[in-house]
Amino acid sequence: MSLQSVDIAVVGAGIAGVAIAREVTRRDPGSSVVVVERDAVATGASRRSAGLHFPRGTTPRVRRMTSYSQDYYRALRQQIPRLPIHDRDMYLVAARESEARLREVHLPEAGLTAVDPLELSVAGSPVVPPTDSGVWSAAGCQYADVPALTRALARELRPDAGFLEGVRVTAVIPGTSAVTLRTGTGDTLTAGQVVLAPGPWLRDPAWHALVEPLGARVKKIVALHIEQPPEPDAPVVVFHDEDAFLLPLPHAGHWLFSYTCREWDVDPDELRAGVLPRDLAEAREVLGRYAPELAARCVSGRVFCDAYSSTKEPQIRPLDPEGRLVFAGAANGSGYRLAPAVAAETADLLGLLGGPANGRSTL
Questions:
Q1: Among 12, 4, 3, 7, which residue's Cα sits nearest to residue 327?
Q2: pLDDT, tens digit, for every residue of 202-221?
Q3: Distant-in-sequence, close-in-space partners of 51: CB < 8 Å, separation ≥ 6
Q4: Residue 11: inside a domain, yes or no?
């Protein structure tokens, strides 16, 4: 394959970009595909992803995407059993009056079942729900080591696609017959179609003007590490009303607590200060309502960011009149959970046949 001229170029080698390249090569095995990444595979937002998948979606489209992705990951694990994807029991904690909304946003296959709150302790969770809260069990939860998974998928993909790592795109120039990418190496790459999957790097000068009309914004994400080893089979607990979750990571020897940070319009290249005192205070305030003994152990963690849309749905849109340049992203913190569906919708938009139904995806 010549890397100076290809059929399709994907910019960004996170979980979404790699999933898109994988989908393209499977739908059109004869196409030439290259993935261009400014750093290395899975070193952007995917490197810090919690990797939690659970059967939930706030809109009908996101629920369809969740269902599609859930089936995709199930099939992928059957094809490649060594992948670092792990099933987990899951419980939801919410105000009892939230039950109707819980059942609306979760897929039917989640099988939400109200349980005695004491079941959390029996299952190995340190969470003690407030007395006015209900607890529900749910099926279909799993988590992944997202960077390891992304690298494994890239390794499997390399015979069918080229990878340009450490190569920054400095200009994106749509044309009527092709899209030109200029790179920091001084080279020029011409592609029949280009997919921008930049994660939170929406303001990169190479494409900022192209994606700004989409209205997506970048929000800071904070996930705290709780230095206490979880039980091997401890469940995930999702705090529905707080938009937060507590994820056991037995292989790492600690828990991960993710809560909703309200800091918007951040620059991913400037988030270098690490966890700040206000991050710890906000996390401890939320977690303290459910697991006070763990709240005091929130002393470190990971700080990153992600792109969010105004619709609370991923944005998969053409950026030029000819449809040769496509944006795929702004998955609202669900990049791993929805990556297979994002890839399928992107391939549909590129006009590639070979999806599961009628030549396209079932989304």
A1: 12
A2: 999 999 999 999 999 999 99
A3: 143, 144, 145, 146, 149, 336
A4: yes
Question: Any idea what the CATH number is for the domain that residue 14 is in?
Answer: 3.50.50.60
How many beta carbons lie within 10 A of that of residue 171, not counting itself? Answer: 12
pLDDT band at 357 (very low <50, low <70, confident <90, very high): very low
Which pair of tokens denotes residue 123?
A: 């299952």
Dihedral sign for Cα 157, 158, 160, 165, please: positive
Domain count, the chain: 2
Each residue of 48-63: pLDDT tens digit? Answer: 999 999 999 999 999 9
pLDDT of residue 353: 67
What domain range includes position 336?
Answer: 5-47+147-215+312-349
Q: Give, in order, the Cα–Cα distances in Å from 13 to each of 7, 122, 277, 328, 362.
A: 17, 41, 32, 12, 25
- Quote the CA–CA distance of 209 and 156 in Å, as a whole number: 34
Residue 226 sits in the same domain as residue 131:
yes
